[in-house]
Amino acid sequence: MLKINKLCKKFNGKIVLDSISLNVKPGTIAVLLGPSGVGKSTLLRILNNLEIPDSGTIMLDGQALDLKIVNRSHIVGMVFQQFNLFENLTVEDNIILPLEKTTNISHEEAVKIARLLLEHYGLADKASSYPASLSGGQKQRLAIARAVALKPKIICFDEPTSALDPLLTNHVAASIQELAHKQFIVLVATHDTTLAQRLQSTIYLMKSGSIIASVDSKDFYTNRANYPEVDQFLAGFAQEVDGKNNLR
After folding, report:
1. Do 67 and 9 touch, CB atoms closer than 8 A?
2. Phi first, then psi: what are they for 193, rounded to 5°?
3. Each residue of 55-82: pLDDT tens digit?
4. Where are the domains of the chain?
């Protein structure tokens, strides 16, 4: 289990994370929901040692998680908002290179793993292509495959649908849900209310660096009136999106 306790972070004196606490079990999804600027991505970046917390503790399976080595130990994987693929490498080599550089497996084994994952994510016919030739959905599937290849315990998604056509949201949700079924610990930072509705998760509504409400998604969609903060955010954001669409 991942246990985050009273995590705090400031940037130039501004509070970005204000005593954040949450627990995420293997096989479950934590959705960090809220508009931009509330600290969702910062929390994921801390887990990936891309930002340093000011205070608080992070435990994994009863042991302190050493953030300084998460990139070398591959305990935490990250699927970035803009995918962060290696544009100068083929699709297959985007998976093979990290495996060869960060693990002790042979080139042959790395190739085998890459090809199995590309087959699973429907990219086998793109193995020799370059990321620039891929669609947004294909790029994301490659980013997921690359993260999964290193066998992390935790996988983080930063705004996984923001760079994609809205029609792909169901596919994204299915990919994320599959990882939970495979017993990964999954954290998703998003403001996409449609994605949040597609995931079986615990929703953590964030505001000004704090978690102001949390609820199991099944309980929420069964009894929305019992969780007014979450309901108001989802309803308000949906109205805002509809308004923007009507102006197009």
Report:
1. no
2. -70, -30
3. 999 999 999 999 999 888 889 999 999 9
4. 2-75+152-247, 91-150
Distance between CA atoms of residues 140 and 130, nearest Å: 14
> pTM of whole model > 0.85?
yes
Q: What are phi and psi of 194, to 5 degrees?
A: -65, -45
Domain spanning 2-75+152-247, CATH class: alpha beta
Instruction: Give residue 204's region: left, alpha or beta (phi > 0; psi -120 to 50).
Output: beta
* Structure tokens belonging to residue 102: 């960060």
Which residues on neighbouring strands pair with residue 220, listed in sequence order?
Answer: none
Sheet with 63-64, side-by-side order of all strands: 14-24, 2-11, 55-60, 63-64
User: Which amino acid, residue 41?
Assistant: S
Using left for φ > 0, alpha for ψ between -120 and 50, and beta otherwise, residue 34 falls in left
Distance between CA atoms of 103 and 63, rounded to whole angstroms? 23
User: To which H or E segment does residue 92 belong?
Assistant: helix 91-102
Region of 37 on the Ramachandran plot (φ > 0 left; ψ -120 to 50 alpha; else beta): left
**How long, in residues, is the chain?**
248
